[in-house]
Amino acid sequence: MIKLTGRDHLNDGEKDGEAMARADKEKRSKKAIEKEWRALAKKEERMTGAYRKEAPPAGWRQTLEAKVPDKIRISLEKAFCLAFSTVFEKGIGIIEKSYDREKILGNLQIHDYAFQVKGNRKTLKKVRNSASLFNLGCIAATTVEGVGLGALGIGLPDIVIFTGMLLRGIYETALHYGFDYNSPEERYFILKLMEASIQKGEAWCELDKEIDAMFMEEGAAAVMQEKVREQIERTSDAFAADMLALKFIQGLPVVGILGGCGNPVYYHKVMKYVRLKYYKRYLWGYYRENGAHGNL
Questions:
Q1: How far apart are CA 99 and CA 282, in angstroms?
Q2: pTM value?
Q3: Fewer CB within a 10 Å sphere, N or C end of the chain?
């Protein structure tokens, strides 16, 4: 005698009802993904417009940069390169002590499960909002750190601290969307994000396209450690060139407060781009799996 399972007891009507409910949930999921995809497209369009404008540096900045001695310029470039390489290669363990990695990943699993069950846009928004909220405290911390050291005329040591705080924000963002930052591929991706976030014009357009291709195209190539080291140098050079005037000012007592105030500005600028790209990458996974039909 064959033992009937729970589903074998269902009549055709009940089975049809289950199939209809499943189809309805899939339809809701696709609709939610498409709406978030379109909303993201609008944000990215606005950001693209801002980044494409290759406006010349402010007059005060050009004047100040011209007065920075070559010795100081070289020291700043070396400091950025050292900060990036040191924090990337040796700082992960220290940075991870500042947040609960398992809790962040656990919250993501809860939100992902909720979306699988409910299939609505609200649950997708919770993932995005969760990844954005923690940054408020980080911006406040970079402000206190930058202004405090600036008041004392401390510029170069601040670069290591600022880099560590910036990477902490990026690592947490990666975790909020379920990406592990420990692999060479992810570290390379993070460095590319950082470099692109402070570029303008054609340089930004090229980097932005390259970043999208890294997760939207099939068969991404493996990244060797040497490639990561080369990208560390490119990213550090970009930050050194862009923050030269501010870090030079920060090295001057009292007036250095003005230079330190640049930390939260740069933090917000970098993280805004990083959050958008990580959410796009996260949403792309659902978008591809569910066969949504939107344009980005």
A1: 21
A2: 0.80
A3: N
CA angle 172–173–174, rounded 5-degree value: 90
Distance CA 42, CA 168 (A): 28
Domain that includes residue 80, residue range: 13-290
Residue 295 inside a domain? The answer is no
Cα gap 176→101, rounded to integer Å: 9
d(CA 179, CA 268): 21
- When divided into structural domains, the chain yields a total of 1
Closest C-alpha among 185, 163, 172, 186 to residue 82: 163
* Residue 52 vs residues 201, 202, 262, 294: alpha-carbon distances, Å: 4, 7, 22, 24
Is position 5 within any domain?
no
> Does 2 reside within a domain?
no
| Nearest by Cα to 294 from 32, 26, 24 | 32
pLDDT tens-place values along the chain, 296 residues long: 434 344 455 455 555 556 666 677 788 888 999 999 999 999 999 999 988 876 655 555 566 666 667 777 777 777 777 877 787 788 888 888 888 899 999 999 998 988 888 888 888 888 888 887 766 555 444 444 434 434 334 445 667 788 888 999 999 999 999 999 999 999 999 999 999 999 999 999 999 999 999 998 866 667 888 898 899 889 988 887 777 656 555 554 444 444 445 677 888 889 999 999 999 999 998 878 765 554 54
Residue 3 maps to a domain:
no
